[in-house]
Design goal:
By secondary structure, the chain is α/β, with parallel strands linked by helices. 45% of the residues lie in helices and 14% in strands. The radius of gyration is 20 Å and the shape is globular. The chain starts with a strand and ends in a 7-residue tail after the last helix. The model has no long low-confidence stretch (mean pLDDT 93). One of its GO terms (molecular function) is UDP-N-acetylglucosamine 2-epimerase activity.
């Protein structure tokens, strides 16, 4: 009998990282979209980009609420949905409000919870995602850790050893399968008016950067001083913050509409440098072999830093970090370094663990 696996997703990174798991699960997978990201530029285009039909969306009115409102509404709505259409197992990914609510709803109903990308820790409780990680870690039954370091965090926190599995991160296979070929990459770079190895690609969306007008302006100024043209696809939160703060965008920085995942990877592959506050970008650069300045006060992905791909920096130190990453010979070295996030077989390992948690025979 085919199991019923609810795969909960609500944000762009979840769509990207869970797509290989949904594919590996085949007919067992029942993707559910919470609506946490409500902008079509952050959802619909990404479902299409990963070849996933738009999932069931049992909830309404989630996007745009504050964090407490989102988690409360999703917890209530998902609990009702799981009661009426009970799955054998629920899969959640990462550290979003959607993952938090999905894990809690399943746990309270006695449904097994599989946590993909388990064990990340920034040790910064001011970061909303850190609280989500701690909550999910407390209720998950199966922890799919991307790295041995992530697994160690879970074991130290008291997770039963038999529940913790090092699977690698699905971002490796997602990036490899989504990256356009050389001809398409060249066409996209030409479309955006940039030359290979002659520009910076930046993304900014975290509240620590967007919600502080002085910090946002300092970051924009730093981007403008890098000596290369900068492409900055705007997240809706960043666009709103720029309008509200009246921040001045330097002439060297060109703001664009959000881009789909293949386009982003094509632009990232051709960039000389990336500057971002994204968690997923910290992983993707290790697959693409690119240097990255992480504009954050802390990171839950030290592997990218430890492997030499990334440097953590405040807005005022972006230029110094960029100089270090672009020192002679280093970009060439990174281009040949293996990713610390696995071998590209994470999804098949995770699917096997999900089916085992569902207590049904493996597919095929």
């Amino acid at each position: 009998m085919t199991p019923r696996v609810a795969v909960v997703m609500g944000t762009r990174p979840e769509i990207i990282k869970l797509a290989p798991v949904v594919a590996a699960l085949g007919p067992a997978a029942r993707p559910l979209a919470t609506g946490q990201h409500w902008d079509a530029a952050l959802t619909d285009v990404f479902f299409a980009g990963v070849g996933m039909p738009r999932p069931i969306q049992p909830l309404r009115g989630i996007g745009g609420r504050d964090r407490a409102g989102q988690v409360a509404a999703m917890l209530t709505g998902l609990t009702e949905w799981f009661r009426s259409d009970r799955p054998d197992v629920v899969v959640v990914q990462g550290d979003t409000n959607s993952a938090n609510a999905g894990a809690q709803a399943a746990h309270h109903l006695g449904i097994a919870v599989v946590h993909v990308e388990a064990g990340l820790r920034s040790h910064d409780r001011a970061m909303p995602e850190e609280i989500n990680r701690l909550v999910i870690g407390a209720v998950a039954d199966v922890h799919c850790a991307a790295t041995a370091g992530n697994a160690e965090h879970l074991l130290r926190a008291g997770a039963p050893p038999a529940s913790v599995h090092v699977t690698g991160n699905t971002i490796v296979e997602a990036t490899r399968s989504t990256l356009p070929d050389a001809a398409r990459r060249a066409a996209l770079q030409e479309q955006y008016g940039v030359r290979p190895d002659g520009y910076v690609l930046a993304t900014v969306h975290r509240p620590e950067n967007t919600d502080d007008p002085a910090r946002l302006q300092a970051l924009l100024h730093a981007l403008g001083e890098l000596g290369l043209p900068v492409l900055l696809p705007l997240h809706p939160r960043t666009r709103a913050a720029l309008a509200a703060s009246g921040a001045v965008v330097p002439a060297a920085v060109r703001c664009t509409a959000p881009v789909d995942h293949p386009t982003f990877l094509a632009l990232a592959a051709g960039a000389r440098l990336l500057v971002s506050d994204s968690g997923g970008v910290q992983e993707e650069v290790t697959v693409l072999g690119k240097p990255l300045v992480v504009v954050r006060t802390s990171t839950e992905r030290p592997e990218a830093v430890d492997a030499g791909f990334a440097v953590l920096a405040a807005p005022g130190a972006v230029g110094t970090a960029a100089e270090w990453l672009l020192r002679p010979g280093w970009p060439e070295e990174l281009a040949h370094r293996p990713s610390p996030f696995g071998d590209g077989r994470a999804a098949e390992r995770i699917a096997a663990l999900v089916l085992a948690a569902a207590r049904v025979p493996a597919l095929g």
